[in-house]
Amino acid sequence: MVQVDDTALAVTDTGGLGVPVVYLNGHFATQGYWRRVIADLGPGWRHITYDERARGRKSRTSADYSFEAAIRDVDAVLAARGVDRALVVGWSYGAFVGAHWANRNPDRCLGAVLVDGAQPYDWLTDELEQGMLKMFKRMSPLTLLLRPTGLTPRMSAEQMANSNIEVGKIARERELGPVLDTITVPVRYVLASGSSFGSKGDEQERIRAGLDPVFAGKSNIKLSAKVPSNHGAILRKDFRAVAGAVREVAALDLAGR
User: Fold this and answer.
1) pLDDT 10s digits, 75-90
2) What is the DSSP letter of 19?
3) Full strand arrangement of the beta sheet holding 86-91
């Protein structure tokens, strides 16, 4: 358990002398989602996973579930494990965290692998914002029932909705665009295909297309793979592509030393 602010996070660290890789979870996901990626990479790497505030079965609750708190948690985990430089791998919400952390810590970040997240696109509307508040309120009985399993966070419906709304604001082109423009470390994206939970029609593909100008304008940010699986299944079905992107970024850091 790593203490940070008013809470504590459940952390798993394989240790060893390999390249440190810190995995940043999806919004309400847990560190277990990374097990296939970790198994594919094997024991030659130092794998560091953790459950965010109120996620999983052990990480404790907090008065702060903001995006800035999530970035502070990366620093707290690495400091607690004595890691000076790490490669960050983030999926979905974790990709946004990884992009911001890489931008703010160029001397500490070996590079970043961003999995179907951190795409600059204005998808949040006033109507959708209100819809999220209503949806999480309706889902509250189910999330309460599943809490003991660690499958849903120990957050109120309003807290979960507001956290999702915050991501919509962070994803806006005017917000995320400058972050990606100023990242200096190697970044590789692994993108899913098709729709995801809550999306309609080709909306998810239009969001992913928001990265096209980034790939065209930034030599250090590239698409490593566009895989067949959708957003929710990518770590389960296309873990080899994610692991391949990790190897690719690590090799770039080694070549640049």
Assistant:
1) 999 999 999 999 999 9
2) P
3) 11-13, 46-50, 20-24, 86-91, 109-115, 187-191, 221-226
The C-alpha angle 71, 132, 202, rounded to 5 degrees, equals: 90
Which H, E and C letters describe 30-56, residue by residue? CHHHHHHHHHHHCCCCEEEEECCCCCC
Distant-in-sequence, close-in-space partners of 30: CB < 8 Å, separation ≥ 6: 51, 55, 56, 150, 151
Give 251's contacts (C-beta < 8 A, 6+ positions apart): none
Phi then psi for residue 7, to 5 deg, are -140, -175
Pairing of strands 109-115, 187-191: parallel
For 63-68, the CB contacts below 8 A with 24+ separation are: 63/6, 64/5, 64/6, 65/155, 65/159, 65/162, 65/163, 66/163, 66/166, 67/96, 67/97, 67/100, 67/166, 67/167, 67/170
What is the rounded CA–CA span in Å between residue 27 and residue 141?
Answer: 19
DSSP SS3 for 188: strand
Q: Which residue has the tokens 């990242």?
A: 183
User: What is the pTM (predicted TM-score) of this model?
Assistant: 0.93
Q: Give per-residue burial for 55-92: e unless 16+ CB within 10 Å, then b.
A: bbeebbebeebebebbbebbebbbebbebeebbbbbbb
Contact yes or no for 62/88 (Cβ under 8 A): no
Q: pLDDT tens digit string along 157-211?
A: 889 999 999 999 999 999 999 999 999 999 999 999 987 766 677 889 999 999 9
